[in-house]
Specification:
368 residues, 3-stranded antiparallel β-sheet, 15 helices, Rossmann fold, 17% strand, 46% helix, 3 domains
């Protein structure tokens, strides 16, 4: 059980069912032969080839220290320390670690920094971490619940007869419609609309969130992206490139009010008048990424949020400040917008972005 917890700490997925299989395997092969225990663990606890190197390192450390004879006989408590590993570490550092482990009953497991990065606040990212976060965000899937399409496709039990297919079949049967064919409406992806606040108060988070928006635009069809600040700017075309550096550079050149003021109400009014209510937001999933700080009239923001909610399938607000202990939506803009939001979620880290992707995927139950 302890070894399974160590593997989970090293970002390897180990369900409880696999742990039970490992325990059963140990009951058959015993715990004295290293090779037997290794293959019993590897065949039951690891299923992805990319996890084998991390597993091998974890097993070596754990076997040498947690399964020593002193541990088995005296049941000495072993302290487990998880340390991040850097690709640039030299061999000397590893030798020092090995020397420390021989004298200290502390089990030290080194693993990739990806797991640490998942929960790190975007505001504390450096440039290298932003690039790694960009790669991780491209793995997210932004597929919301489908909507009924106006196009029909063949079906064994449809809502209307497929006359063309029925007549084609009848020709081969001497003109007798022996077999009838049917059609039913198909499904299509709902449009996803992302509105990113690029004002000065959002500057610590806007850099990472822009990468999230790019991952959504470049990796999914029917996605529209806008920036919110002192003006509304459509950046879908600029972010459509698969090259993240090119896409972000084009978007930065396009957005003229980066790190400026905020007039969320006026920007949403323009979005509703020119794009949203006229069709872009109808039946769509609209995601607003903003901390809710607004210098404009909160009444205007409330009115525009009400208009937007009436035409959308789901309206999601992502606030990076929501994770702050004791946070309450007391800002005028956030307080005015919240009554019309269907889902109010965090947005400060990669883990929060993964949760947002889950909300988008299941965005069908409105917030009470």
């Amino acid at each position: 059980m302890t070894f399974a917890r160590v593997l989970r700490g090293a970002s390897i997925l180990v369900p409880i069912g696999n742990v039970l299989m490992f325990v059963e395997a140990l009951g058959r092969v015993g715990m004295t032969d290293r090779a037997s225990v290794y293959w019993a663990a590897r065949s039951t606890l690891v299923h992805r080839p990319e996890d084998f190197p991390v597993f091998d390192r974890a097993f070596d450390v754990f076997w040498d220290h947690a399964h020593s004879s002193a541990f088995l006989e005296d049941e000495e408590t072993i302290k487990i320390t998880l340390a991040t590993d850097d690709d640039d570490d030299d061999d000397g550092a590893d030798d020092d670690q090995a020397g420390e482990l021989n004298d200290d009953p502390t089990l030290t497991l080194r693993f990739s920094a990806t797991e640490v990065l998942r929960n790190k606040d975007f505001g504390a990212y450096d440039e290298s971490e932003l690039e790694l976060a960009q790669q991780l965000m491209t793995r997210l899937r932004f597929a919301g619940p489908p909507r009924r399409s106006h196009r029909f496709h063949s079906s064994s039990r449809g809502s209307r007869p497929d006359l063309r297919a029925t007549l084609r079949s009848a020709i081969g049967a001497g003109g007798e419609p022996i077999r009838r064919y049917w059609q039913e409406p198909g499904d299509r992806l709902r449009r996803l609309v992302l509105l990113l606040d690029v004002s000065g108060s959002m500057e610590p988070y806007a850099r990472a969130m822009l990468r999230f928006v790019h991952a959504a635009v470049a990796g999914r069809q029917r996605v529209e992206a806008f920036s919110l600040g002192t003006r509304l700017t459509r950046v879908t075309k600029e972010l459509n490139s698969r090259d993240p550096d090119l896409a972000l550079r084009q978007a930065s050149q396009r957005v003229q009010d980066w790190s400026g003021g905020t007039r969320l109400g006026e920007c949403l009014r323009r979005f509703n008048d020119e794009w949203g209510v006229r069709g872009l937001a109808r039946g769509s999933i609209v995601v607003i990424l903003s901390d809710g700080w607004d210098r404009g009239d909160p009444t205007v923001l409330g009115e525009q949020m009400c208009r937007l909610q009436r035409v959308t399938h789901d309206l999601i607000w992502v606030n990076p400040l929501k994770v702050t202990p004791g946070y309450a939506p007391l800002a005028r803009g956030m307080a005015a917008a919240l009554p019309y939001v269907d889902h109010f979620v965090e947005g400060h880290s990669l883990a929060a972005m993964e949760e947002l992707a889950n909300v988008i995927a299941g965005a069908s139950t409105r917030r009470s």
